[in-house]
Amino acid sequence: MPERVIKITDLKKSYGKFEAVKGISFEILRGEIFSILGHNGAGKTTTLEIIEGQRNRSSGSVEVLGMDPETKRSEIFKHVGILPQDFNFLELINCGEAIDFYIKSLNAKDTVDGILERVDLLDKKGSLIKNLSGGEKHKLGLGLALVNDPEILFLDEPTTGLDPVARRSVWKVIEKLKGSGKTIILTTHYLEEAQKLADRVCIMDRGIITITATPDEIIHKYGKGSVLRLSFSEKDMKAFLNLGIKHRRSGDFIEIDILTMDEFFSIIDRFKEVMISPENLTLTRDTLEDIFIDLMGGDGNEP
Amino acid sequence: MNLRRILLYLRLDAKSFMRGKTGPFFLIVFPIILILLFGSIFGSSGVATKTTLVVQNLDPGNDTWEIVNTINQTGLFNVLVIGPEVNISTYIAQNSIDSALQIPKNFSHEFSNGTISLIYYSNPSNQISSALGQTLANEIAQSYNSNLSGGKSVSLISRPVLEKFTKTIDYYIPGFIGFTILSGVFALIYQVPNYREKKIFRQLSFVGLTKSEWLAASVIFFTLSTFISDLVLVGIGYTVFGANISLSVSSILLSAVVIFLGMISFLSIGLLAGLLTKEENSASLIGNVIFYPMLFLSGVFFPISDMPAFLQVVAEFLPLTYFIKALDNLILFNNIQAVAIPITIMAVTAVLLFFVASYIATKRERL
User: Which of A79, A199, B95, B244 is 20 to 30 Å from the Cα of A148, by its Cα?
Assistant: First the structure.
């Protein structure tokens, strides 16, 4: 079993009378991408900032690599990289200078070009930060977070506000990092992002954790399964009806609920036996987003 | 505090600053414009230029021409004599004359009768020429009155406090340096809410840069840039306008210390003021509230001794007051012994303000 790198126990944080985090507990294992999902104001960023040592907690305990971030902040900073929400830096310096400042300040061994290459930004080495696009800026933030070759990376909404192309470009970089064995804690608005990148997901709602599991487990447990949607020619339709498979009509289409992939393949085998060929066959599965909307309400894009 | 981190950030900040448009302008170009402007006004002497004095002598006597010669010899006026046939009121109006002196037709005769009078025309909106002309007319009248009474007159010779210290611009140079140093306050009042809003302080903290290190880097940067801009400023004052400056190696070094201590105090004030607002837009309001009262109450433009007693007490609590006192002594009088007390007060203030500002800034950031 992989080593535990972060342990949160009964964490609470209040701002005056407002309780932002109401006693949450979870653990994060080395090498996994752990995603925290939730609506705006769910307590994701507060939780992340407490783990990073940026914010003090009201009660509970937090351990990062066996250390308390409230008392060992600077020691923890040597082992973690942080990409904060809405990353910004001095706008009138260029990407190379920013990375160089980080490398020298942290006494890191990496090179400016090496870091820029890892985040696909080498061609922007001499560009001023103010001239970077949203996606390039996020990549630079990611590059700065990687300078000390961190064991743990905190990525707070790394693709918020980016267009779909820029978002996918940042995902590519995160996937590359995942391949290098980094532990990544990712908060995001985008459920597609969590489903694509995360090994485990925790869903926060108004300061509490409602679910912690892998995306597949969540889909399996809370989803409605898959739906096989197809149509037949007039001749084949009679043969299909004779098979007695439970289905429903949706216009010109037939819809069949599928619970497991075995069930799917067994249906396909039966079609072959009676020599019928389905047309326009699609198999759709509940996404994390569908389940999130069911569980939390809302439109799913901005949970 | 980590000196290496401070120097690394200093280099980064300097690059960023120099690539900006407004920062270098206000720190370097604006003070130069200011000295050129003030130098042009006050550079040549205590007055801007020689005042033109139109003189009309309606008395044909030699005594009265002696008066005109004496006025000419003072060198204070460009004396322009107009003939007796000219209507002086019309001449003044047509030629926009600020000062004119008319010696009446029967001046010599009435002198012996004891009822002499001179007519002085002045433009009240031009205070310098008006005051000079008025003084001149009074002096002439008093001199004649004294002779008339048969008494001996005592003349008062007015001289500046230093033999060579005759230009108004000399008085303004320490004030200009105070002005440039205060611009650092403004820079931070804008920068702090901007950096907080964009979470740049947080980003810098990821490399371990603390608030006190950030403030220290800002102090070094502004001290160096202000010192350079002030050298240019003093150089222009000296070479272009002939300002009388008493500098020695000791006074230059002590001036650098004064600027450094002042910078610590004023940037700490700037940091504290910047923490008061979350938005850059309201920063200018706070900046003005701090900047202008300090500027006017610290002797930058008006002597503290001319202020009402309660404002003089207020001035004693302003760090800029000691800054100006110290620079006055160093730059104008080269009086190194006299700066001990102002420098001590500035050092204590600087240390206190630095630690208070760093502590509050750190506490405010980490909630």
Answer: A199
